[in-house]
């Protein structure tokens, strides 16, 4: 919704014998559908600023009400799983599934597997035609910076797993756990952003003091999601068939190491904005992109084993995601404007 931009200054008015008041911007009041007599709730920050929002209307569905799905049957594999994941991501705490036809054993197992794949979710009621899932986590306990830091650790571990697959020439024992952990953290990150977009007080408590930063966070999470998928693809391809001893993989090893170095640098400046650090991270990401392009051209030649070629292609696209994160880190550092001058190496 495009709102008009009202004046940022409002004069304090006298209201009654000992009270004071200030008017609300008309475009905002209209967008919130406010009328005289409606209630407003506010939250006060430590720095003295206030955040306002309309009070919940009596009789409306609250956040604690179950998200209900009524269906004749669920026959297609994966539909029920994605439905529950979607409800979790957008912030529902209780998810109730009802069917006219009893759920098959396969769908029940799918529900249990989905519950295990989401942080804080458990099945609290199970009947032939009804299953109730409940989320028990407190969103204020999961800060955005901490979750992003956790994602960085998982991404670095995926890169190291690919490096080990090239060195030891044996199958990975922890690849599945890493990809599952990445999916869990990413789902929680998306959930946190949805909840924060509806509760500015929560947004500040989990690390986004300005609600306008939530869009920026969403781009960061999307890039991390793409990056996790691509690094998982790379490791999966290498894990599919151990690399033969005589197979040339030097370029692939170099890209893996460069991507790991660039990822650590970019994520550090993303979490701790610094113009100089962001410039270094951007330059490093561009070097990784160039190296990945060259390696992909060499490793996808005719006669080269498919797994190595596909792994290099995944890293090539992963380098593009890293470049996007470096641009966001640079934008964030410039926006803070804490460094009036920097010195860059020639």
What does this structure look like?
The chain has 3 domains: 13-54, Pemi-like Protein 1, Chain: D; 67-135, Translation Initiation Factor IF3 (2-Layer Sandwich); 141-336, Methane Monooxygenase Hydroxylase, Chain G, domain 1 (Up-down Bundle). The chain is flat, with a radius of gyration of 25 Å. The protein has helices at residues 26-31, 79-89, 105-116, 144-168, 175-198, 200-205, 213-240, 250-271, 275-299, 306-336, and strands at 13-15, 19-21, 40-44, 50-54, 67-71, 94-99, 121-127, 130-135. Strand 1 (13-15) and strand 2 form a beta hairpin. A 4-stranded mixed sheet has the order 5-6-8-7, with helices on one face. The longest helix has 31 residues, at 306-336. With 346 residues, it is of the alpha+beta class. 55% of the residues lie in helices and 12% in strands. 31% of the residues are buried. Residues 1-6 have low confidence and may be disordered.
């Amino acid at each position: 919704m495009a709102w008009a931009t009202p004046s940022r200054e409002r004069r304090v008015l006298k209201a009654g014998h000992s009270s004071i008041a200030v008017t609300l911007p008309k475009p905002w009041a209209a967008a919130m559908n406010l009328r005289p007599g409606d209630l407003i709730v506010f939250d006060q920050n430590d720095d003295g600023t206030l955040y306002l929002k309309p009070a919940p209307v009596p009789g409306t569905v609250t956040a604690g009400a179950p998200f209900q799905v009524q269906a004749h049957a669920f026959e297609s594999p994966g539909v029920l799983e994605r439905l529950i994941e979607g409800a979790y991501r957008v912030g529902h705490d209780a998810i109730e599934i009802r069917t006219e036809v009893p759920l098959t054993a396969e769908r029940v197992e799918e529900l249990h597997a989905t519950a295990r794949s989401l942080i804080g979710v458990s099945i609290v009621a199970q009947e032939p035609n009804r299953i109730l899932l409940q989320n028990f986590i407190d969103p204020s306990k999961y800060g955005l910076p901490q979750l992003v830091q956790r994602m960085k650790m998982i991404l670095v571990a995926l890169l190291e797993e690919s490096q080990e697959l090239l060195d030891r020439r044996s199958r990975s024992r922890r690849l599945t756990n890493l990809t599952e952990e990445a999916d869990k953290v990413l789902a929680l990150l998306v959930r946190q952003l949805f909840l924060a977009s509806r509760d500015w007080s929560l947004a500040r408590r989990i690390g986004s003091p300005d609600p306008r930063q939530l869009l920026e966070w969403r781009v960061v999470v999307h890039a991390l999601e793409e990056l996790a998928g691509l690094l998982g693809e790379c490791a999966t391809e290498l894990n599919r068939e151990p690399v033969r001893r005589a197979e040339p993989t030097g370029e692939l090893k170099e890209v893996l190491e460069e991507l790991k170095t660039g990822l650590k640098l970019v994520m550090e400046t993303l979490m701790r904005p610094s113009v100089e650090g962001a410039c270094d991270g951007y330059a490093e990401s561009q070097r990784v992109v160039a190296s990945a392009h060259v390696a992909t051209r060499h490793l996808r030649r005719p006669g080269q084993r498919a797994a190595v070629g596909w792994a290099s292609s995944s890293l090539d696209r992963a380098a593009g995601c890293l470049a996007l994160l470096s641009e966001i880190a640079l934008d964030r550092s410039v926006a803070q404007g804490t460094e009036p001058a920097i010195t860059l190496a020639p």
